[in-house]
User: Which sequence fits this backbone?
């Protein structure tokens, strides 16, 4: 009785398990899911009939129960074989076999079910065990053996197809089928073992139930996981990066192909004390790091290999350390690439410095003769009253100034390009700046019969802080363009602004003209370097296309904005807004326009008959210019046409001031300066560099060497006099 009870309990548990697995199998969307699910469902029925068997109370009852049980096993096997065929991708065989097999199994089932009527397959008899419990068992006749043979043939068919698939598939995928084969084999072996005990109750069906459940979990969990593990293994081994894993004792447990090959690692004899990894960890520890990234370079023959080595600790989900790993990335290509880039950058820098040198030379070469032209011309203007001659000289003056402007533009642009423009902030009066502009441009406008009108906000603070030189350059560029590109009418300049923050004022200067105007399509290109728009119309107007590019860069440098509104034939308005700090918030009041004298007649600003100065230049023309420009000051001037002569003169005389040209045949201005200074001659006498080299940084360099100042060529009479006056001893100036 006791045994029957245990048997029923196990059967019930098997039913529950099988039913739950059957439910779960519905999640399998592949066609073999249906076969497996149906196997499990029929398995539930089979186990139920097994319970009926155990609970049989009469031979007739047992006879019917056996019939149902044997039939159910028929169908369990049918669907199980169907599953095996489908799962092992023998769909064609399945399609061919499923109907004939169903007919054979059906006939067998029918024969078994008719046994109670004909008694042709098996007989039922009872045995009583020692405790008096009655069990029903079967005695077999030929049709039953046919039934048994059909069942075993079914199992054999399943085995055949699985083994076939195992043989035919890649080793990588064999695991999929080997698992199913193992499960089936296990179940058959368990069943045989069970039969050897010759217990009074048949439990075969339970093993089939176990098989179904195991298969389900295998295909749903174990197979994907084992495929994933082996795939990841392959991927990691194939990776173009190295991976080395260490256990908690720092012994190597895995090194992928990259790491094994590049670092000659034998995982069985490798741990974290081996180089180069130990060195990497040491240098990380020195930085106080337990993990991190280091670069590593190794010579492989003539070549150098560069690696990025990443060391990380490996923790479990509870953050307990379980090991560590190294990730190694070959960085050689990037390093070479960076080397190439930095070589290219060096070459570019060299080219850029070659450009600067070229510009310095060019500026010098052009400015030097220009110096003579403008200087000599000024002498003509100062000395002649002949109107025809004056007119020629005026024309030379204008062309000379234009040429000078052009050179300055090119230099300015190269300075901006090389980011060598320094912003020097200082306090200035906006009204003064506007007045300077007017003085400068009124004559130019007059010459073209153009008016210049100004409106100026009275509320503008009387002192703002900005780089006055750059601001003046911005305004000069815009106003000169307005004058240049206007044929009739005139120019209106408006200066206004508003306080944007506590001590910041947005100064707005807008310049409107009644000139040619700019086509809408051209406006986007207006600020591009070397771009001149409306070329046809402007062909007769001189320009480089650099002015607005420079202006735009300067405005940006000062943190401001520039805008253009223009209409072809009507005129243009350029508006510049530049934020500036307020130095003195007192309002400027009404703008007083300075009326310039129409005839700019020269008058010397001082005389110094007791002063004695030396001028050194290899160009005799330039020496003449300086002498002529200073003639009215009555200064005694010695001239030298080279460094050696200058040194001689300095040995014999004590001067009040020395002008030294930079570029002269050996020795040049700087060498001459050093010779004079090191010879202890004329100590304390200011030496002014006289040069056409006006590229960025030149002035600072001269001051650093020891020059008192710097005067750029072409020399203007006014600048020269100002410099002389600044450096001559005060008592000698009248
Ligand atoms: P450029 O040396 O040619 O004057 P800019 O950069 O100063 O170079 O100006 C670029 C172009 O923009 C000029 O060639 C001209 O066609 C156009 N332009 C600039 N200002 C004006 C203006 N006020 N009116 C009409 N066209 C202008």
Assistant:
């Amino acid at each position: 009785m006791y045994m029957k009870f245990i048997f029923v309990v196990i059967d019930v548990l098997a039913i529950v398990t099988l039913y739950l697995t059957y439910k779960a199998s519905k999640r399998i969307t592949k066609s073999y899911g249906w076969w497996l699910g149906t196997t499990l469902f029929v398995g539930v029925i089979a186990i139920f009939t097994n319970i009926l068997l155990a609970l049989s109370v009469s031979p007739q009852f047992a006879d019917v129960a056996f019939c149902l049980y044997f039939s159910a096993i028929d169908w369990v096997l049918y669907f199980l074989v169907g599953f095996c065929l489908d799962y092992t991708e023998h769909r064609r065989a399945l399609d061919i076999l499923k109907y004939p097999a169903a007919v054979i199994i059906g006939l067998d089932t029918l024969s078994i079910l008719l046994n109670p009527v004909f008694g042709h397959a098996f007989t039922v008899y009872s045995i009583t065990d020692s405790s008096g419990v009655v069990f029903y068992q079967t005695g077999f006749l030929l049709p039953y053996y046919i039934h048994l043979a059909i069942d075993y043939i079914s199992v054999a068919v399943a085995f055949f197809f699985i083994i076939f698939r195992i043989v035919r598939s890649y080793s990588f995928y064999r695991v999929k089928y080997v698992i199913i084969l193992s499960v089936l084999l296990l179940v058959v072996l368990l069943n045989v073992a069970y039969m050897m005990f010759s217990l009074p109750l048949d439990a075969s069906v339970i093993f089939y139930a176990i098989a179904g459940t195991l298969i389900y979990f295998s295909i749903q969990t174990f197979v994907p996981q084992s495929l994933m593990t082996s795939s990841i293994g392959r991927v990691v081994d194939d990776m173009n990066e190295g991976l080395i894993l260490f256990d908690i004792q720092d012994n190597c447990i895995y090194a992928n192909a990259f790491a094994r090959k590049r670092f000659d690692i034998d995982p069985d004899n490798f741990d974290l004390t081996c180089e180069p990894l130990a060195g990497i960890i040491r240098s990380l520890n020195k930085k106080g790091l337990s993990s991190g990234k280091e670069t590593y370079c190794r010579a492989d023959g003539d070549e150098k290999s560069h690696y990025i080595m990443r060391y990380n600790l490996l923790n479990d989900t509870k953050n307990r350390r379980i090991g560590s790993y190294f990730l190694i990335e070959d960085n050689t290509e990037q390093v070479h690439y960076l080397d190439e880039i930095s070589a290219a950058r060096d070459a570019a820098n060299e080219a850029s410095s070659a450009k600067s040198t070229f510009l310095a030379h060019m500026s010098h070469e052009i400015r030097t003769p220009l110096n003579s032209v403008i200087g000599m011309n000024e002498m003509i203007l100062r000395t002649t009253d002949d109107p025809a001659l004056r007119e020629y000289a005026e024309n030379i003056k204008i062309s000379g100034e234009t040429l000078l402007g052009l050179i300055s533009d090119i230099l300015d642009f190269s300075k901006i390009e090389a980011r060598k423009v320094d912003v020097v902030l200082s306090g200035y009066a906006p009204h003064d700046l506007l007045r300077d502009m007017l003085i400068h441009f009124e004559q130019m406008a007059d010459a073209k019969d153009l008016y210049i009108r100004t409106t100026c906000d009275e509320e503008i603070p009387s002192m703002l802080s900005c780089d006055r030189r750059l601001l003046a350059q911005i305004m000069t560029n815009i106003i000169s363009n307005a004058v240049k590109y206007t044929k009739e009418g005139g120019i209106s300049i408006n200066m206004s602004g508003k306080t944007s923050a506590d001590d910041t004022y947005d100064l707005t200067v807008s310049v409107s003209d009644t000139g040619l105007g700019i086509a809408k399509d051209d406006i986007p290109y207006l600020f591009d370097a070397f771009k001149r728009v409306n070329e046809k119309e402007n062909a007769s107007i001189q320009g480089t296309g650099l002015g607005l590019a420079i202006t735009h860069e300067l405005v940006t440098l000062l943190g401001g904005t520039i805008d253009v509104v223009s209409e072809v034939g009507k005129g243009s308005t350029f508006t510049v807004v530049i934020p500036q700090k307020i130095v003195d918030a007192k309002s400027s009041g009404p703008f007083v326009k300075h009326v310039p004298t129409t005839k700019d007649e020269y008058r010397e600003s001082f005389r110094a008959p007791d002063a004695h100065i030396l001028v050194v230049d290899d160009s005799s023309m330039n020496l003449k210019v300086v002498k002529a420009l200073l003639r009215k000051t009555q200064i005694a001037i010695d001239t030298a046409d080279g460094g050696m002569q200058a040194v001689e003169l300095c040995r014999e005389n004590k001067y009040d001031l020395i002008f030294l040209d930079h570029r002269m045949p050996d020795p040049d201005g700087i060498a001459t300066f050093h010779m004079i200074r090191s010879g202890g001659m004329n100590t304390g006498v200011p030496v002014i560099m006289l040069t056409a080299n006006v590229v960025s940084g030149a002035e600072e360099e001269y001051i650093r060497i020891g020059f008192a100042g710097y005067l750029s060529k072409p020399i203007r009479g006014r600048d020269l006099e100002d410099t002389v006056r600044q450096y001559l001893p005060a008592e000698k100036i009248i």
Summary: The first helix runs from residue 2 to 25. Residues 595-599 have pLDDT under 50 and may be disordered.
